[in-house]
Write a structure and sequence with these properties.
Layout: H1 12-40, H2 56-84, H3 90-112, H4 124-153, H5 164-180, H6 184-210
Helix pairs in contact: 1-2, 1-6, 2-3, 2-6, 3-4, 4-5, 5-6
Length: 215
């Protein structure tokens, strides 16, 4: 009789998913804190300046911190893509790709916005930076709704996780988009809430790792 050798199952994928989940939780929490910090920051310039409430140096630091924080949100989108890709329909996979492209482009926009650090609100440079945000936000929103609708019908995450991408996309179009192009206070509050929703995505990925979801 030939002895059967049982090989241990590699744990690389769950470990990777756990890491992405924690990065998403951290990035969402940091993003919410950033929104509060911007609202609480003492005015260093008048609200006629695009960098308000920061001076130009503070604005550069803030934008770099936003870009770094977006990488953590990108980690969460990478995590859900790893979990869902092989078990998703073509439209769902298309949505996941749009999510990744949109978040990368949004991250780039945070760096590009530094070029308006000394600009005045309403100037050509300030308006160009504002308009630049529109395309990646739209692409990201479409991706979230498309992928979220597919994953709601064929969930790969348990509990509220099956709704989180769709909720993120609908919130972006119905609340975040109008708010960020309105008064700063409304925009920052809306961003803070959206960031907390990303915390929910991170928690869902951690639960998927705990439940042994394969990627």
């Amino acid at each position: 009789m030939t002895a059967t050798v049982t090989r241990p199952v590699p744990q690389t994928a769950p470990t990777r998913l756990r890491t992405l989940g924690w990065l998403t939780v951290l990035a969402g929490a940091v993003g919410a804190a950033q929104a509060v910090a911007v609202l609480a920051w003492p005015d260093q310039v008048s609200d006629r300046h695009y960098s308000y409430p920061f001076d130009s140096t503070g604005f550069v630091v803030a934008q770099v911190s936003f870009a770094v924080q977006h990488l953590g949100l990108l980690a969460g989108l990478c995590g859900i893509t790893l979990v869902a890709w092989r078990r998703s329909s073509r439209p769902t996979r298309t949505g996941l790709v749009l999510c990744l492209v949109g978040m990368v482009a949004l991250t780039v926009c945070e760096i590009v916005a530094i070029t308006a650090a000394d600009a005045i609100v309403g100037s050509a440079r300030a308006d160009a930076v504002d308009n630049a945000y529109g395309v990646p936000m739209t692409v990201l929103g479409i991706g979230l709704v498309l992928a979220g609708a597919g994953l709601m019908r064929h969930p790969v995450l348990s509990g509220l996780g099956r709704w989180v991408l769709l909720a993120l996309g609908l919130y972006l179009f119905l609340v975040l988009f109008p708010a960020v192009f309105g008064p700063m206070v409304a925009g920052r509050i809306a961003i803070g809430i959206w960031m907390l929703m990303f915390v929910g995505l991170g928690v869902s990925l951690l639960r998927a790792d705990r439940d042994g979801v394969t990627t």
